[in-house]
Amino acid sequence: MTILAPVSPLGWPARAGRWVWRNLFGGVANTAVTLLILWLLVESVPGMVRWLVVDALWAPATAEQCLQGAGACWAFLQAKYRLILFGPYPYEEQWRPALAMLLFFAMVAATCFPHAFRLAARPRRLLGGWFATVALIAWLLRGGASLEPVEVRLWGGLPLTLILSVVGAFCAFWLAILLALGRRSAMPVVRWLSVAYIELIRGVPLIGLLFMAIVLFPLIVPPGVDVDKLARAQIAFILFFAAYMAEAIRGGLQAIPAGQYEAAAALGLGYWRTMRLVVLPQALRVVIPALVNIFIGAFKDTSLVLIIAMFDLLGSANAAKSDSTWWGLYVEAYLFVASIYLVFCALMSAYSQRLERRLGAGRG
Would you call 28 exposed, middle or buried from its count of C-beta atoms within 10 A (0-12, 13-18, 19+)? Predict the structure, then answer.
């Protein structure tokens, strides 16, 4: 009997070379696109590295030195990063919004990766943790009870952007579910009201709703009732994005086969239990990409509050570049803010793809 010698598997250089050849140079079109991208990288990356690192100016440096230099002025960011991140919040109290953001990020991590925190089988504990975190964040930002009170009008920067986008998207999501169910309701009045709300809000730009919240809201509330500007802007965000989410969820509801409703009815489930246990879980799984797209849009659209004199992340960057000491410098501030937006949006997109793979969304 002849014994065949075992064939050794390909080493990693050979496997890497095969992958590169198959994915980057497999065909004329692939090769052309790869070469074009390589040419663009060769032309642009060295200049970017020189501007960002080699020719950049760090502290101590003045605006005049930066304007005369050929690279980025990171001395400007070193002097203004706290204003950009926290806005007009009192300088000596900025540890409070910093701690609030750390608490928020910790709860987001616990929610997105519950197995790592041993919370996968304890949703009530996770929900309680969120309520406690939100209460603690509100206490840190507003003050009181041994902390110096800080008016809401002084909140700004990244904490304000997160509050408007996260709270707005969370509340809009639940309102959107009711609107989507209402638009498909068999009751004409509920259906007409839902359709009227969705079409009206989608026909008005967000900037218009913000102006209405700031200018018209005080005119329609009873005398003596005062709602701060942040709450009014938050309500405008919730109303606006709920209309868009409702249409995305309605598309998911329409994708559910009629047999699912019939099976639920055969089991004796009522309308609300059918929606909660059978229909909505499947519909929401289908529309994960659309909902995440709306979440990302909500996060970026918080920059519009600048027009109602609220200093979100972008507004704080505009305030930082308006300092006469650093007059003429703005690229570094906008690059810093754009990097923050990019990181947050990329993380949301990456997690949504991970969630889709885990739930099997988009598969037959």
Answer: exposed
